């Protein structure tokens, strides 16, 4: 796989390279020895980052990390602004940065470090945010191309603002993505519990199925439904036990086993916690009502 070298693409006296170009072609899969910020100024296409394809259009920004595989194809003529970046350009403290998270945990981005745990390669700018980004990239390109006195300092300032916008969007989109994923997992889990709450259910088995820690999975479920998975299971079992006590002549022990409790003692304990009565007293109350009728 081809690798774009730092020395071939970025002047060591500048530590940054910026250019705009239009294309209707595709670029083969490759990696970089530097960061690449890609701004889609117009058109649309597909960018592939680390094996994941992202549809892109005007206003989208991709942040390509060191050594991430990257390729793209265009649907129509696509105009792209590229910012190739050696971290040392931001500050000497980033000279040994090995990935984008290093930028978050160093320099001015420490406030993001506990809030963005991973990259979101594509971030979306629309409306007022897009207009601000247009102006920002235009200003950076102008400074880089004209190279007037103090242009590096000016670009550094613009870049700080740009990275702040990007990391802010990563935080927002990461939160939204996590929220959607959590609700999807909780919804799938709810269906599993509703389909099998009479049987033997292990939270650890569910955690393995969804590739989550059991306690974290329980928190996701409770955040969505207001109760823990086990509380939900017991509630469903109790509803069914009450129905069977009222509508059938099954013994209390048979009902306990039928709704998922192998031990009579456990069934009695949980039943009383939920209803305030023992199963036998609830059945006695039913029998008295039947006699009165």
Structural class: alpha+beta
Strand arrangement within the widest β-sheet reads 1-3-8-5-6
Shape: rod-shaped
Largest sheet: 5 strands, mixed
User: Order of SSEs, N→C?
Assistant: EHEEEEEEEEHEHHHHHHHH
Number of domains: 2
- Beta strands, count: 10
GO molecular function, one term: sequence-specific DNA binding
Pfam family, one: HTH_18
Domain HTH araC/xylS-type: 183-285
Keywords: DNA-binding, Transcription, Transcription regulation
Record keyword descriptors for this entry.
2 domains, Jelly Rolls, transcription, single chain, 20% strand, rod-shaped, alpha+beta
Descriptive notes:
The protein has helices at residues 6-9, 100-105, 127-146, 151-196, 203-210, 214-225, 229-247, 252-258, 264-275, 279-292; strands spanning 2-4, 16-23, 26-32, 35-42, 44-49, 52-57, 60-64, 70-74, 78-85, 122-124. Strands 1-3-8-5-6 form a 5-stranded mixed β-sheet. Strands 2-9-4-7-10 form a 5-stranded antiparallel β-sheet, covered by helices on one side. It is built from 10 helices and 10 strands. The protein folds into 2 domains: 2-179, Jelly Rolls; 197-293, Orthogonal Bundle (Arc Repressor Mutant, subunit A). By secondary structure, the chain is an alpha+beta fold. A hairpin with a 2-residue loop joins strand 5 and strand 6. Helices cover 51% and strands 20% of the residues.
């Amino acid at each position: 796989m081809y690798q774009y070298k730092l020395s071939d693409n970025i002047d060591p006296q500048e530590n940054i390279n910026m250019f705009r170009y239009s294309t209707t072609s595709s670029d083969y899969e490759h990696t970089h020895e530097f960061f690449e910020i890609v701004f889609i100024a117009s058109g649309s296409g597909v960018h592939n980052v680390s094996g994941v394809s992202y549809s892109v259009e005007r206003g989208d920004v991709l942040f390509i990390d060191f050594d991430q595989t990257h390729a793209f194809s265009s649907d129509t003529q696509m105009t792209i602004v590229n910012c190739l970046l050696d971290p040392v350009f931001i500050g000497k403290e980033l000279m040994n940065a090995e990935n984008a998270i290093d930028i978050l945990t160093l320099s001015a981005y420490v406030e993001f470090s506990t809030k963005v745990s991973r990259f979101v390669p594509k971030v979306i700018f629309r409306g007022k945010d897009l207009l601000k980004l247009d102006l920002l990239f235009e200003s950076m390109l102008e400074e880089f191309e004209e190279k007037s006195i103090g242009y590096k300092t000016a670009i550094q300032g613009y870049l700080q603002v740009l990275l702040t916008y990007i990391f802010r969007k990563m935080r927002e989109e990461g939160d939204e993505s996590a929220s959607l994923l959590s609700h999807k997992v909780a919804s799938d889990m709810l269906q599993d519990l509703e389909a099998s709450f009479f049987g033997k259910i292990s939270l650890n088995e569910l955690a393995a199925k969804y590739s989550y820690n059991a306690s974290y999975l329980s928190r996701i479920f409770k955040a969505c439904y207001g109760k823990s998975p086990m509380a939900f299971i017991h509630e469903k079992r109790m509803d069914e036990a009450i129905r069977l006590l009222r509508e059938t002549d099954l013994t209390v022990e048979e009902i306990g086993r039928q709704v998922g409790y192998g031990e009579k003692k456990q069934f009695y304990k949980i039943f009383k916690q939920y209803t305030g009565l023992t199963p036998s007293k609830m059945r006695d109350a039913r029998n008295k009502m039947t006699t009165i009728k």
